[in-house]
Structures are given as structure tokens and as C-alpha cells.
Amino acid sequence: LGMYGTVESGKRVYPEYNDDLHSALGVEALQGEPLYLGIDFGFTPACVVAQFTPRGQLRILKEYFAENMGIKTFMESFVIPALERDFPYSKVKLALADPAGLIGEKIIGELSSIGILQELGIPTEAAFSNTLEPRINSVRFFLNLMIDGQPGFLVSRTGCPNIRKDLSKD
Description:
This protein is of the alpha/beta class.
């Protein structure tokens, strides 16, 4: 009929994700509640900022990423100043990072990526597993959760455009 439509192929990783339900414009940090970071290393480092509400809703507040940059420069020059600016009333309680971030101390005796984060004052632990299934299921848990009539998973439309796009695609 000459009308625009969408074509989907393959299977979505998170078919439970509904952008109308699980995202919002006004997802704000709760002042005084701790922040949690998810960090990936390499020369395209990424950091996601999340927070739990007192009732258990997982809020994905902000995403930061860079290209061709080491983790120390990324954190010192970009993420730490942005956290201070974007979340002045909340402190980072814990960063969970790619377990590969422990590599370094064992190989060359220098600080690992996780060691660098701890040296910068960010309490960081390696995720318990890099296995795909538990990682996917942990997100699915919150996507399928309702708390007081609200979704258990809420992502900021303005703060996390790439995460929203990735949650929606195959």
C-alpha cells in the first residue's frame, strides 16, 4: 500500500523488551542512592551507570563509551568527570567489570584494568562469569518483573540511546 514498515529477521536477544514500557524520558537518579557501574575494557571501553530503587527497580541511567582509548584515560578524562557532573548527589558503590580485566597482573606484573579502576578510587570486582546465559538471564529477570505497577527494568531514552537500540534489535 506504499506505506513504510519494518522488517525483522532472526531472533531478538531480549524479546521481552518493550521500548514503550521499559524506557522513559525522565529517568532520573535518586539522590543519595548508590550507583553501580558496568565496565567493558579494550580500546573501545564502555561504561553503563545503573541504580536500584528502594523497591528493587533497575534503572539504566547513562552510557559512556569511547574509541581508541585505554581504560585509564577513558575513566580519568571522561567517565569520572561526567559522573561528578551528571550524578553529584550519588556515589559509586560498586563497578562490575569484564573478568578479562583481571589479566595483566598475571602476565606482565603490571596493574590489570580492574587494578587501574581501583587505583582511581572506583571499587571494582570482576563479574562472576563471562558465560552468555547467566548474563542474558539476569537482564531477562528484570525485564519480566513488575514492581508496584511499574516495570522492573527502566532505561533512559536520552541517557542510553545505544542500549535502547541494542535491546530492540535482533
